[in-house]
Design brief:
Layout lengths: L1 E5 L13 H15 L3 E7 L11 E4 L14 H24 L4 E5 L2 H10 L2 H4 L2 E6 L9 H11 L1 H9 L2 E4 L2 H9 L8 E3 L14 H10 L6 E6 L8 H14 L3 E6 L5 H13 L6 E3 L7 H9 L2 E4 L8 H8 L4 E3 L12 E2 L3 H12 L9 H8 L1 H12 L1
Parallel strand pairs: 1-2, 1-4, 2-3, 4-5, 5-6, 6-7, 8-9, 8-11, 9-10, 11-12, 12-13
């Protein structure tokens, strides 16, 4: 089987920042290599790419556009379009030179949309097009997203309709494609995101103590949240729920990490912390590199919380569970794990579970073994390949 995995162009692979889709593409490519498939990763060119063993075909774009941009503004959109057009040219050339049929696996609406716009029927017949939907918006109720879909995700809708097979991360997304877009249900498959359970794993106590010492947090109890700083991730909601507990327990700190998507939202966090005299206990870490560095934070945390408003899957939740952290969620997860987390519905339940975890009881609900079984690299890569066969 010949497989082209398609990097989104958001940031080069391996990702230097917590770019979830890029991490997934990397792990899938490595998993497909492990399974002895002929796989090539098409990705944006990067003269400073991190060391890797990936079979990368670079797609060059103007260097002025290769810098990372987490603000998702006009410059970022321009980069996506230019990369997608250059990618389409490279894919056309590669497909025309192949003697066997190719599976092209897209993960981004821009990339596939412009590929479809520029490809001819002769080339199209030599490729089977697969598309995995990572966008969180589809997991919401249709009445809440219909206008947004028509305005901002019309390209993705087109991709979903045109793909030979579509992979979704949750049942709600599947329902929308069938009921609202009229997509043939036989070409839609639910699949999980892949997690590297070798990178995300429990560390020995002396390593944890060393990390906390270097961060000058040895005497602190740590609550940790990772995710883009924006309203959807709900850092403000977490801090409001923690306010009284932090005031009563000055040895407790709340650490949060991720790219600032909405500067006004970050300003709101800082203002609220200052007004409530908990500024010294609210610590913004900036971006944390995925893999070993992020795993160390999962391990030093007494509790990892995810109060997000909505997620398509919640890969960082799975990572934290793989690291055997105590994990607390504000809503039931939409992935298929029965262990490894607790869910709160009220502020009182939240405070009770926070207190239980920080008092040093046994893990709230350990679930690493289930993560390894269901979301390990080769398991998910094999799931994809079986569907393509």
């Amino acid at each position: 089987m010949i497989i082209y995995e398609i990097g989104t162009g958001y940031t080069s692979i391996p990702a230097r920042i917590g770019a979830a889709t890029e991490i997934i593409v990397e792990e899938l490519t490595l998993g497909m290599q492990d399974l002895k498939n002929k796989v090539t990763l098409f990705d944006v060119a990067d003269d400073n790419r991190l060391p890797n063993e990936l079979p990368i075909h670079e797609v060059r774009i103007p260097k002025a556009l290769t810098t990372m941009d987490v603000q998702l503004g006009i410059r970022h959109k321009l980069k996506r379009v230019i990369y997608s057009l250059a990618l389409a040219r490279q894919l056309r050339k590669a497909i025309s030179e192949e003697k066997e049929q190719v599976v092209i696996h897209f993960h981004n609406q821009y990339n596939m949309y412009f590929f479809l716009k520029t490809i001819n029927k002769k080339i199209r017949k030599k490729a089977k097009i697969a598309y995995t939907v990572h966008s969180y918006i589809w997991a919401n109720e249709w009445a809440n997203i219909e206008a947004d879909i028509r305005k901002r995700y019309f390209q993705e809708a087109r991709c979903i309709e045109q793909a030979d097979c579509v992979f979704v991360l949750n049942n709600k997304t599947r329902e929308h494609f069938i009921n609202q877009l009229g997509v043939d249900e036989t070409k839609i498959y639910k699949i999980g995101n892949v997690v590297n359970t070798n990178k995300y794993c429990p560390l020995e106590k002396h390593v944890i103590d060393s990390v906390k010492g270097k961060l000058e947090l040895s005497q602190k109890k740590i609550i940790f949240q990772v995710g883009s700083v924006c309203e959807r991730k709900n850092q403000v909601g977490a801090i409001k729920n923690l306010k009284e507990y932090l005031k009563d327990h000055r040895e407790v700190v709340y650490l949060y990490a991720g790219g600032i998507i909405e500067q006004d939202y970050q300003d709101e966090i800082e203002k609220y912390a200052k007004e409530n005299d908990i500024s010294e206990q609210i610590i913004y870490l900036g971006e944390i590199a995925p893999g070993g560095e992020l795993n160390r934070y999962y391990n030093i945390a007494n509790l990892v919380i995810f109060p997000s408003e909505i997620e398509s899957f919640g890969m960082v939740i799975i990572e934290a569970i793989a690291a055997e952290a105590d994990v607390l969620l504000s809503t039931p997860p939409i992935f298929d794990l029965k262990t490894g987390y607790e869910v709160y519905q009220t502020k009182e339940e939240f405070e009770e579970l926070v207190d239980k975890s920080l008092r040093g009881n046994e893990n709230l609900n350990s679930g690493r073994e289930e993560v390894v079984e269901k979301y390990g690299r080769n398991k998910i890569a094999n799931d994809y390949c079986e569907k393509w066969k």
